[in-house]
Write a structure and sequence with these properties.
With 136 residues, the protein is an alpha+beta fold. Helix content is 24%, strand content 32%. Strands 5, 6, 7, 8 and 9 form a 5-stranded mixed β-sheet that branches. Strands 1-4-3-2 form a 4-stranded mixed β-sheet. The radius of gyration is 16 Å and the shape is globular. The mean pLDDT is 95.
Length: 136
């Protein structure tokens, strides 16, 4: 079985956040979701657990970062083409997300970023496969 990752993210309003990611074409696994948590399916092995702040506090003794003022994590997703980068970033902005950083175009690599409704920063990046193959 391949290794999986479950990224846990605190959210202020679960329904708003679910609606945002639903507009981007993502689905949720109801088996791992309830009134306080939504399991966002990114791929067969990558999931984001969107957890209401009160529930999230039950998992840590630390304060929850105010992601509107500080950056606790940068979440980077690969895309299969430059067009797919633009498609997801444009959909995020149209769904109520906000820009995070300027687009980055290095020719062999292209990326854009956005903030979700809870101000978590998501980067979407395409890299030319031939540029990757040349590494080693």
């Amino acid at each position: 079985m391949p290794q999986m990752i479950f990224v846990n993210l605190p959210v202020k309003d679960l329904e708003t956040t679910k609606g945002f990611f639903g507009k981007l074409g993502f689905s949720f696994n109801p088996q791992f979701s309830d009134d306080n948590t939504a399991c966002l399916v990114i791929s067969d092995t990558i999931f984001a657990m969107l957890i209401t702040e009160p529930r999230f506090k039950e998992f840590t003794k630390k304060e929850i970062a105010d992601s509107s003022k500080t950056t606790e994590v940068l979440l980077a997703l690969s895309a299969e083409s430059r067009e797919k980068v633009d498609e997801l970033a444009d959909a995020a902005l149209a769904a109520g997300g906000s820009p995070a950083n300027e687009p980055q175009d290095l020719g062999f690599m292209y990326g854009r970023s956005f903030q979700d409704p809870d101000h978590h920063i998501w980067e979407v990046v395409w890299m030319d496969p031939s540029a990757v193959e040349g590494q080693g």
